[in-house]
Amino acid sequence: MVDTPVPNLVVPRLIVGLGNPGDKYAGTRHNIGFEILEALSKRWQISLKEDRRFQGAYGDGLAPGNAKVSLLKPSTYMNRSGQSMRSVIDWFKIAPESVLVIYDDMDLPIGKLRLRLSGSAGGHNGMKSAIAHLSTQEFPRLRVGIGSTNKTGDRDSAVVSHVLGKFSPTERQQMDAVVYEAAKAIEMSLKEGVEKAMSLYNGREITV
């Protein structure tokens, strides 16, 4: 009897939340990656501390299931996030496919999560930087829907205004539920691999 080979599971070792540092950006749509990373930090009791080597707030410890994991919030501003990520993977010799990046996505409505094993930047400046510095698109990511702008006129200005704006009270309530579900999806990716988490969470609509 020949054993069927078990496919290699994609299990994150480094989880990165994208956002902009500073109080003026706290709570904005563009910073939902930071929010989810901070939620993981609290859930797993992994403290984040500024580390100049990594150009960001870094911490490591054990996630549920005794998975050893590192957490990173780049302090470089969104469009240079890849610099911070690169410094961590070089220091710890982490393969790019073991890096899970969490970021906001205007192409998804609020209440939607999309896990993927690879893909393009889709116009997101933080992901453009990540792909450039990791020299590959082959790393998992969790896209978090923030909805699109309904403003008319100058498209670029409307986009900036949207992503750097804050959620309405109703949206905020829904996003709190999204943060919770995102944390559960990431925990599943650590225990059973990203693909299993994709199959369970990508089709859901998170409501309150």
Overall description:
The structure is a single chain. By secondary structure, this protein is of the alpha/beta class. It has a single domain (14-201), classed as Rossmann fold, CATH 3.40.50. 37% of the residues lie in helices and 19% in strands. It has six helices and seven strands; from the N terminus they run βαβββαββαβααα. The protein has helices spanning 32-44, 81-92, 125-134, 155-163, 169-192, 194-201, and strands at 14-17, 49-51, 56-63, 67-74, 99-105, 113-116, 141-145. Strands 2-3-4-1-5-7-6 form a seven-stranded mixed β-sheet, with helices on both faces. It is globular, with a radius of gyration of 17 Å. It starts with 13 loop residues before the first strand and ends in a 7-residue tail after the last helix. The mean pLDDT is 93.
Structurally, how many domains make up the residues?
Answer: 1
First-last Cα distance: 51 Å
Adjacency order of strands in the biggest sheet: 2-3-4-1-5-7-6
How would you sum up the major sheet?
7 strands, mixed
Q: Strands, helices and their partners?
A:
Elements: E1 14-17, H1 32-44, E2 49-51, E3 56-63, E4 67-74, H2 81-92, E5 99-105, E6 113-116, H3 125-134, E7 141-145, H4 155-163, H5 169-192, H6 194-201
Parallel strand pairs: 1-4, 1-5, 5-7
Antiparallel strand pairs: 2-3, 3-4, 6-7
Summary?
Helix 1 (32-44) crosses helix 5 (169-192) and helix 5 (169-192) packs antiparallel against helix 6. Helix content is 37%, strand content 19%.
Features:
Rossmann fold; 7 strands; 6 helices; seven-stranded mixed β-sheet; alpha/beta; 208 residues
